[in-house]
Amino acid sequence: MAPAFRIMGIVNVTPDSFSDGGEWFEREAAIAHGRELAGEGASILDVGGESTRPYAEPVALEEERARVVPVVEALAADGAAQVSVDTMKLEVARAALDAGATYVNDVTAFRHDPEMAGLVAERGCDCCLMHMLGEPRTMQVDPRYDDVVSDVKAFLEERAAFATGHGVAEERIMVDPGIGFGKTLEHNLELLRRLDEIVALGFPVLVGTSRKAFLGRLVGREDPHERVAATVATNVLALERGARVFRVHDVAPTADALKVAAATLRGDGA
Ligand code: HH2
Questions:
Q1: Which residue from 14, 38, 60, 192 has the fewest beta carbons nearer than 10 Å?
Q2: In the predicted model, what is the mean pLDDT of the chain?
């Protein structure tokens, strides 16, 4: 039987967290962090060099490539987990695939760089197509939908058709409702509540709720590090509704919770 879930551990190579350590420290810290997450049960490591947080400023191509490639190379060489690159830039994705990544996580679902679809097709790698309203700099400014679930579903269907139309094999595609990307608190909760409707598209569904602001608002926690229990709650509910891949910062508690949830739901893990 296929595993009930996979965990995608988040490996950020962005200067915010290790600002005064210089480039080498940042890189070595990211590699060590990725190894730790694989040890805790992440079967995918998602390496990103550009923040997509609301209002974040874009990072230049050369800078992003220089951040991401050495980390991808080291983690891919370990062979402990599949390595994903979290980028919307064609050239960064290509360089990461050359360095051993086998998964492209593009939060624009090939809209920023439509040639990304051809690259994924040519390399035969996995990809995630995520819904986002607008772009990171502006997406949280008054997002509106007719019906958030139907709108997101139609978008994902269209992007999956775009990908397969460019030669990406259906079994290489995962879809993601893009929690927090141009959504209010209510939109996020409705997407999670009705996630089975996204699952009905037939592609494995990935969800990324980890430490996000809407959870902080719900439980009154300003510090993202204190949103682990809130994150775990969303992931258990998403598993129950059919999600298969969970993008998280806190792999160990998520793995424990999902093991228990999967054993309860499927009776296969005890
Ligand atoms: N969320 C973020 C980044 N990439 N990719 C997918 N597929 N789904 C997501 O929900 C998702 C994503 C949020 O990124 P950011 O705000 O940059 O912070 P972090 O990477 O620490 O989560």
A1: 60
A2: 93
